Amino acid sequence: MAICLLWTMLMMVGSLPFGPVQQAELKSAETALVWEQGEGFQIRYKGRPVFVPYYNQLTIHNREWTKALYRAPNNFTKAEKGRSSLTVRYEGSGMNWQQRFTVGPGNRVRIEYLYRQNEWDNAGLELGVARPVESFWAGSLADILDRPKAERVLIPPHYNPLIGSHPLQNTGHFRLRSRFGTLTWKSSEPVMLWDYPDRNGAFVIGFDKPVARGATKSFIVDIIFSEDKVKENGLIIDRVEYPSRVEDGYVRVQAHLMQAKNGPGQVKARLRLKDGPVVESALLALKPTPSVWDIAIPVLQEGKCRAVFSLLSAGGKELLRLPEMPMQVGPLAAMGPDRDYYTSERQGSITVNTVPALKNKEVVLAIERGGQALTPPASFKGGSRYSVRFPLDALPMDESQLDCRLMFKGRELLSARYTIRKHPPRPNEAKIDYNRRGLIVNGLPYFPFGFYSDRDPAASLAGEEAPQGFTLLSPYQGSAKGRSESDWESIRAYMDRAAALGMKVNYHLMGTATLPPSEEKWALLKAEVEMFRDHPALLSWYISDEPDGQGIAPALLEESYRFIKNLDPYHPITIVLMSPSRVKDYLKCMDILMVDPYPIPNAPVTRVSEWADTMNRAANYRMPLWIVPQAFGGGEWWAREPSAREERVMTYLALIHGATGIQYFVRRAPVGNPISPSLWSECRRLALEGAELASALLSEEPRLKAASSGAIHAAARYDRGYAVVLAANTENRPGPLKIKVQDATHTGQAEVLFENRTVAVKNGVVEDIIDAFGTRAYRFPMLASGLPWKESLKVASKNLTANSSFEQSANAGTPDGCYVYVGTDKGASLFVDPRMAAHGLHSLRITCPAEGQGLSLSPFPIQLEAGKRYRLSIRARGESDGLRFHITLPGLDREDQDYTLTTEWKEYVLSGTAKTGGRVNINYKLISAGTAWFDLLQVVSE
Fold first, then answer.
1. Helix (H, G, I), strand (E, B) or coil at 717
2. CA 363 to chain CA centroid, nearest Å
């Protein structure tokens, strides 16, 4: 009766002026609550977010939690604002519920829920009240106040699987002390702080319990903010940060401390590992303002450990001890072959990565085959990556087993047996380079930038998108079991067209590979793999689409994987997952990780970076990772498409967090998916930017560390003496940007790629501004001493041609200073290519799909003088021997010439005397079907 009366009263209060709204803000003192239809609510204290919207805040499920029966985002809301309150109603089949928010008096927020489900018997309710903001909560101390004896717990600053049940559980009354303020929570029933591996920037707080059919229930929570701090023995502690997982061999703790009134002037910190070493800091002079302490212990033993942090007086008396901090010390080293297989290489290598705690400490790697040393033991300094080479001619064709042991001070750090595979060379081989975590195709690092599509328009789509910068095609095509001859003709057509355009295909076998085992299945797979395994367009086999969401067992896919691999060891196998938490179940089913985070509009863009990190950690940073950015929306669970800016920041987040391939979902031209032309135009632009960044993203050099702050994500790569720095702003508002590249000493200018400007760099620190959901890419010499290499070739001082080495490119991928004349085949393309060069950092790559039907180029005109002799020279190479190109210099007594290319860089020369003076245009064209690279085009008077 009381609950029914409360329901009625809330309905009445909600209808007071001011009436229906789609968004509202309630304020009192330094606290504000903001609600927006379709987003939910957030709570701010002193302008800082403490809770952010949780899009899936209420779910009705069956008791076994195998099926969701109702989800809040699927229902339209009605909201009415009163003078000091906001009432939000949700109406949907089988479930009615509402929230009432009140802010004040003072820094108090009250949230009242009423709910009733009318349809299901075996039902439970998961109420996720909100997502606490990680920066406010993580590392804070909480006092649980509704237990017989008050208990203090430390909120882990990171997800910590060692804790088991979270320390803040089954409590309805607690006080959380953060460096940003104190929060007191009091609710009508106990709640739980859920903590997941993929936090997406926060946790979830709420409860999960049975809910009876037809029963009306309520839940009320009061949240009060204040300035209280943790005070003990004259100390004030704001915050403690520590890792849940130790990746670098050091247990590091950071404490934010200050002196209370009449507190000690000096203290020291102690960090003790249970059953392990103890480290004490030097004395620290405390101040009435916060000081930050960092203390670290090297832990050179893999496994679980617990650390205790305490503060001592100058005389050694313990003043404050924090709860035990459980953590996992990860492997001290990782190693493995640098390729998944070898063909024409003369040497292979075992690459060893050792943690920073082993820096300057001697480690030894022994490589044996059959109990005999394959190469002498290699001794080297730890703390970074090191490759130990071994001769491949000593190994037979097919498979060999190598035993590798890594030693430190006579103790084995790591041992493993590796299968080394040697195969005869193939023209279309695609290798995995584990150092780059990417692919090697035609002897070059290959960064796929592509999209899913449907099968029937795939050939025409390839012709449209290859000249726009895309390099990968992945059409859906169903099972081989039901294909007609016309279906096979359609597949051959798009494969042939892709090959002619220089594109590759992530070939779909999933309709057949996911069938239950049978003789028919294996026969179908064998026929299809053998049909296309030697096709020049083939890059990889795609054997399953979101098996974790369809209940497809890993064992079934592993069987298909091994069957296909036996038929074709030259091409990697891919699977896309919809949940990164399941990746370890499927690791044996694929060579390349794929995941499809689709956050818009239900989750922050940082879902992309969170999922990328989770996938890479699961594979120990050894496997290539392709991200599938969302390029669709307006149906199912996604109310809209991403904006062009959201697409940009999601793609850059993928690159920053280690993706070495991009495959957008999905392209259905002209406006099927995505609907927005500006969105697909942004995808095309990103493909061009990705091509320019490919050399850095796939660099063999160890990755650089880039430090940024706030909402800016950053990464740096070392590429041919340059630091290439990427940044992404994960907030939809502009702001300042500051990035420090570790070990960089350059002071001067940095090129801002794709923006035709420069910014200042000081000792490896870049400062700039960045727009809302913006991205930046910078390039500058890594060291103050300049580049570590010198060119053997130079641009002649009297050269007449503009941009002769194709280094100027104001628009991504496009050479400055030339006209282009389109040939008969509109799929022909040309791009500036950073992966190889005869001079400088770039060459010009031209692809001609059919003999004589490609495009031609005319560089900016040059001025000739009558009677003078001129020498035109150009460096060039082909993807295969025998390709031909034609070059013309009008006005000479010998105007043109055809040349035949090899796969090596060579200089091609045309000389003659000018018959007349004036401005003339050089013109050159790749005649043969195929791809060739050109560089250092010069004209000088002799």
1. strand
2. 32
